[in-house]
Amino acid sequence: MTACKTLAKYRMTTVWTNPTTIEQYAESDAESVHITWRDAEILALTSPGSQSLGLNGALSRISRAPKYDTTNKTWYVRATGYNFSNLPAAVSGIEVNLIANRFGRVTDDTVQLCYQGAAIGANRADLNLDPSKIYGNGSDTWDIPGLTSAMIQDASFGVVIRFQSHPHYPHRDGAYISAVQIRIS
């Protein structure tokens, strides 16, 4: 009986929800070394079943003086405006569903929640190359102190994503994103 109550406690209360706003941006000191996402496809992620969002060209190795970071990185994609229904009064967990064609070796650089224009909480990026990945779980609040339903309902709440060339297997391959969805427990 206790196991059933524990499982029910972390059941996701919202369905997978798509963003209503997608935008891209680069680090302020490194615009020339980032690879952009295709502007014509930037809104593709706001409606399920539409085209995916792809890169403008292949990744290339360019030194980022003065930091000398030669890892190939995409511009950031910020997905916000999730219109959640059935939000719980108290948030116990957040899951992000990222579906992307990584062409074999494009890995995460940043997978982080955002609020009011700033990245917040833990960066859940990893080197796993699976095309469909779920970050977080029903009991993971991404190390965000004081996370509330009001924050999640805010139009600025969402997720920031950026990809990079796999650090152990350098390459010039691009990537496509098919879905960036969030659900809440």
Word description of this protein:
This protein has a 5-stranded antiparallel sheet, with no helix packed on it. The chain has a 4-stranded antiparallel sheet with strand order 2-9-4-7, with no helix packed on it. It has 185 residues and is mostly beta strands. The N terminus is likely disordered. It has a single domain, classed as Sandwich (Jelly Rolls). The two termini are 21 Å apart.
Please identify, by name, the CATH architecture: Sandwich
Main pleated sheet: 5 strands, antiparallel
Low-confidence segments: 1-9
Q: Regarding CATH, which class?
A: Mainly Beta
- Using only CA atoms, what is the Rg? 17 Å
Number of helices, where a helix is a run of at least 4 consecutive DSSP H or I residues: 2
How many distinct domains? 1
Distance between the termini: 21 Å
Helix content: under 10%
Task: Provide a compact summary of the structure.
The protein is mainly β. The chain has one domain (about 15-185): Jelly Rolls (Sandwich).
Index terms:
185 residues, mainly beta, Jelly Rolls, 5-stranded antiparallel beta sheet, 4-stranded antiparallel beta sheet, 2 helices, 30% strand, disordered N terminus
Outline the secondary-structure elements.
Elements: H1 2-9, E1 21-25, E2 53-54, E3 76-80, E4 94-101, E5 106-115, E6 118-120, E7 132-137, H2 149-153, E8 158-165, E9 176-184
Antiparallel strand pairs: 1-3, 2-9, 3-8, 4-7, 4-9, 5-6, 5-8
